[in-house]
Amino acid sequence: MTDPVGDVVWTPETAIALLRSEDLSQRYYAAWWLGKMRVHSAVPALLVALQDEADRTELGGYPLRRNAARALGKLGDSSALPALQEALHCQDFYVREAAAQAIEEIAQSSPTAHRCAQDCIPALTRLLNSSQTQPYEAILEALGQLRATSAQAMIAPFLHHHLPRIRMAGARAMYGLTGDPQYGELLVRELHNPDVNLRRVALTDLGKIGYLPAAQAIAQCQVENSFKLFALKSILEHHLPASGIALELDPQLCQTLQEIMLAMDELL
Amino acid sequence: MITMERQSLADLITAIEQASSPNQLIQAVQALADQRSAEAIPQLIKVLGYNNPTAAVLAMRGLIALGSTAVPDLLALMDDYNYSARAYTVRALATIADARALDCLTSCALKDFAPSVRRAAIKGLGCIVKKSGDRSLCLAILDTLQLILKDEDWSMRYAAIASLSYFPAHILESRQILQAVLQGESDLVVKARLHLALQQP
Known about the structure:
heterodimer, A: mainly alpha, Leucine-rich Repeat Variant, 16 helices, 2 strands, B: mainly alpha, 12 helices, 70% helix
């Protein structure tokens, strides 16, 4: 795949070479491009970029490392996990955030990768208890995705965090660990939050955890139809059989899922 | 406003233009929509582009309640620059399902750049079929929907299937098309919607 930018024709090879370009902005763009284009052969070069010292912001941030971590997440290669775990200790908040998100993304790529990513649980859990400001949303979501039951006692206090987004990430993680509907209901309540951005977050989270009892509340929520359509689709994906034939399920679940589809018709 | 007298249409329109808060706007739009008056149509259409979703939905419902009377203005005053306004217009046209909107809905369904406009238009084509039942009209719409069933975006294929499910049973072609795409469909939810459509008597 090529993408002409200026005079350079972008190929996987040129993009990998550009990760060492004299021009730091080219390195930054190349890291993004390699993730977007899913260039799997770029993993070793991206791991080098994850240690970059050249590209610094005035405040000491590491822009190239952030993009390298994001790209490694998109590539879903579990060989990047040790380096990403290392990056959880970077001084740059956004590198830590990108690393936690990348670990979560890699865990989703295959059952084997999920097992490997569970090695990151202790490092992620320790961040919940650090003196630095941490990317709590990303960390909590990763721990939920990794089914980090050992971290439950550390996650629970975030259900009372003063920031609603972090409370919601806590609820989503707790639901991931326990499947207990009380955590799903915490998110359902936020569908009535006066802030439309928070309603969108709650709705997307409920979709991601596949919380079936929320379907009708999602269909009624005051946000744009497209958000509701995508959240209801995620819920269906959690419950449909691989054949897509709802009739194969027990009659009550089948009826519920078919009602969700008809609710989606109304949102078109 | 303390007066309980019935306000004139002109007053109601002024109230919308002069509303100084989102709540005032919403109340003024509701009052105008409640008139069920053809003269309110251009103002209700303007509200679709005001970037206030609650007011826009009220205006859209008011336009839908006016039915076919609203169709010529909805078509003529379509907002080419504001896709969110266009989505409300297309939803109104889809629900009214007047065959005069066929060309507009077909073109929106195939090539509008905004996904929400396309989905609403695709569904609207099925609504026209449901209302008219004219065979040649149905077959023309079927051609459009067949193209959309090849779209890369799952939500467009989903909308096309929902649209096909509105076809009357005697248009056998619609069922044949649904059966034909079943094999090649890769998206789980689209597949489930196909099975649901085929399950209908």
